[in-house]
Amino acid sequence: MKIYHCEDSLEGIFTAIYNTYEDHSPVRDTMVTTIEENLLFSESVEVVPDPEKTVKVIRTLKRRFGEEDYESLCLALSSPKPEKAQAVYRTIAKGLSEKCPPGHLLDAMADTYVNQTFSLARGAGNEYHHLKGFTRFEELENTILYSKIAPKNNILTFLMVHFADRFPMEDFLVFDAGRYLFGIHPAGKPWYTLQGKDAWEKVRSETEKLSAAEQHYREQHQGTLQSSSLSKSPFSMLDSVTLLGGNDASSETYRCGYTSSYANFGGTDHWGNLNFRSNNYDVAYMNLFVGFDVSRASSSFVTDVPKDENDLSPLDKVRLSNVPYNTRKPAGPESHCVLRKLTYPTGGYTEFDFENHKFFSFTDDDGDYIHDKKRRVKTKATGFRIREIVNYTAEGVRSDSKHYCYGKTEYEEYGWEIGRYYHTGAGEPT
Predict the structure, then answer these.
(1) At 38, which helix (H) or strand (E)?
(2) Above pLDDT 90, what percent of the chain?
(3) Residue 115 CB coordination number (10 Å)
(4) Which of the four pLDDT bands, split at 50, 70 and 90, describes residue 280?
(5) CA-CA distance, 274 to 291, in Å (whole number)?
(6) Where in 42-155 does DSSP place strands (E)?
């Protein structure tokens, strides 16, 4: 194994990739990394960033794969995750060896490295598009527009391209606080970047001097600014309800508490509802009956599946697959900002316990029909239902509760003469 250690930058990684081809290193026995990797019996190569080699790699990537795929590779390399360099290297190597046409470099999602590159690029791209819309500039005393951001991915250069095109005749400064990285755009001139704590100390005092117009805006909109902090939740949550009494009577406030509100709701379940998972492109493993010739399918994600004696359909049986993990399953209520607690003006409170909807599945994990009903298992469905409501005193002492059961018991469902008698949640609610 030959390991190329490089700087965590576009220039450093592209130089390392250039060197792998210059050295004629076998792809399968080569690793490109930005972290310290010392494997037994491996050869370590230190890479010094080279602008000329970087330019050559960029030209090759744009010519062979097109601007869109090149941008996706750059977005993937902006990720803080350590596997990015190797993933991009192997994706490029695969694309070059297979003569991948422009715009299709990331189509081979069944490949581990291509899949990794796609996921990294999508994560950085989502953050980039979010900041394009929600980055706010403040006007400083010297009329410079200033914005402070803290993105997970190193996407400042992408933002500078966007804002330079939007504000070509403005002096503006964008500061990535997590990396001490500055994007500087002089009016009517090309933008550039500076990095380091020394640079921050030089401009820090200036960024604290707001213009008179900016100060007035803040004073007029202070309440709005405080309450409009961006949340990753895709919906609003009621924080409290205040009842104002008449004739100078005191007010009463009821406060609401929720389960996790910081979740990144990127994915959906089989029914299209949010499921707290980010890889929403995954269709999972599933068997289907189709009416087309599988041998002529253009996608590598569709494969033949032998029929068994119980498969009575005249159609061909195929398996859909995308990536080796399933993101279409429904998640639990704890990750969806579900109302968990209601606190009363007296100090007492009520807690709500939710559960997933459940039913007896007629298919297994592959999507095959289960003929033996005793093999059918409880399965989560989308959405939630109340399981228990518990009331507490102001001292936190449990006072009373209500428990809700749904559907048939296992005794009723299966006709068992022995066994535990409890509700499964399957069937019609009672």
Answers:
(1) none
(2) 31
(3) 22
(4) very low
(5) 31
(6) 43-46, 138-139, 145-149
For residue 157 the two structure tokens come to: 């250069």
Distance between CA atoms of residues 53 and 55, nearest Å: 5
Handedness of CA 112, 116, 119, 121 (dihedral sign): negative
Residue 134 backbone zone (phi > 0: left; psi -120 to 50: alpha; other: beta): alpha
Residue 226 phi, psi (nearest 5): -70, -30
Candidates 339, 384, 329, 378; CA nearest to 357 is: 384
- The domains of the chain, with CATH numbers, are 2-131 (no CATH), 135-226 (3.30.1300), 233-264+272-278+330-430 (no CATH), 286-320 (no CATH)
For residue 266 the two structure tokens come to 């990127």
Is 388 within 8 Å of 404 (Cβ atoms)?
Answer: yes
The backbone region for 407, taken as left when phi is positive above 0, alpha when psi lies in -120 to 50, beta otherwise, is left
pTM for the full model?
A: 0.52
Listed in order, strand segments (DSSP E) in 306-415 are 316-320, 339-343, 349-360, 378-392, 398-403, 406-409
**Beta strands 423-429 and 398-403: pairing type?**
unpaired
Of 106, 64, 102, 104, the closest CA to residue 88 belongs to 106
Half-sphere exposure of residue 405: CA atoms within 13 angstroms, side-chain side: 8
Q: What average pLDDT does the chain have?
A: 79
CA separation, residue 124 to residues 66, 79, 191 (Å):
19, 6, 21
Nearest to 268 by CA among 234, 300, 301: 234
**Amino acid of residue 248:** D
- Identify the pLDDT of residue 235: 61
* pLDDT tens-place string over residues 323-351: 444 566 777 787 777 888 999 988 899 99
| Cα–Cα separations (whole angstroms), residue 101 to 73, 109, 301 | 15, 15, 19
